[in-house]
Specification:
Low-confidence stretches: 13-25, 27-35
Mean pLDDT: 79
Order of helices and strands: HHHHEEEEEE
Strand order of the largest sheet: 1-4-5
Oligomer: single chain
Number of domains: 2
CATH topology of the largest domain: Hemagglutinin Ectodomain, Chain B
Largest sheet: 3 strands, antiparallel
Helix content: 40-55%
Radius of gyration: 56 Å
Structural class: alpha+beta
Number of helices: 4
Length: 215
């Protein structure tokens, strides 16, 4: 018994106790729940992980807001460019239409210059020129003028003997119809009307047959 006690004392005095790191857990107890088990139990494994969606994260300079501002600035710049381009296009189109109209008018006037020259020659003719010769000259100028007008799309409206049409005719007087078939027909044209490429320039001023009050 004494020998066993001496051996135990020698072991206790010669060997130093084993050092354990501070972070190591103490050995688990023989009974009861271990500390690791307690930690595991205290952790709710069914809980959803913390949200990492973009909307829940703080916005830093250079992040989502900066990107949106950059996109907005780009869209605004594109809008301004498109607006400027459209305005330039509108102005250019208006200018080109005006120039085209001016060129068309100049071309029409150029075609009339020969007619004006013929009229000037008739006006400057010898006063002793026989009347039939002057009339023939005027008839030639009239035909030449009308050819140029017709080529330019001018149409003369002389509706004598045709049904009255208030859209292109202006009734300035009426006369009793000789029979019912002549009612609302144009009896005479006082002043011809004109259309240019389908557009009414001046209505024809006419006299119309009417049997109203005749029966």
């Amino acid at each position: 018994m004494t020998e066993k006690t001496d051996i135990q004392n020698d072991l206790n005095s010669d060997e130093s106790p084993i050092d354990t790191p501070a972070s190591m857990a103490d050995p688990a107890a023989d009974q009861g729940q271990s500390s690791d088990g307690a930690d595991m139990a205290s952790t709710d494994m069914s809980a959803e992980p913390s949200s990492r969606t973009e909307g829940t994260q703080p916005t830093f300079r250079g992040g989502r807001d900066s990107r949106l501002e950059s996109e907005m600035a780009e869209l605004k710049d594109r809008h301004l460019r498109l607006a400027a381009e459209f305005d330039n296009y509108r102005k250019r189109s208006t200018r080109e239409r005006a120039e085209l109209a001016d060129r068309a008018q100049a071309s029409f006037v150029a075609k009339l210059l020969d007619v004006l020259d013929d009229l000037d020659r008739l006006v400057a003719s010898d006063p002793g020129t026989p009347l039939p010769a002057l009339r023939e000259g005027l008839s030639a100028v009239d035909r030449k003028l009308w050819k140029e007008l017709q080529d330019a799309g001018v149409e003369r409206i002389d509706p004598a003997g045709m049904p009255f049409d208030p859209a292109v005719h202006e009734a300035v007087s009426t006369t009793p119809a000789p029979n019912s078939a002549k009612d609302q027909m144009v009896s005479a044209t006082f002043q011809p009307g004109y259309r240019v490429k389908g557009t009414l320039v001046r209505p024809a001023r006419v006299q119309v047959y009417s049997d109203q009050g005749q029966h």
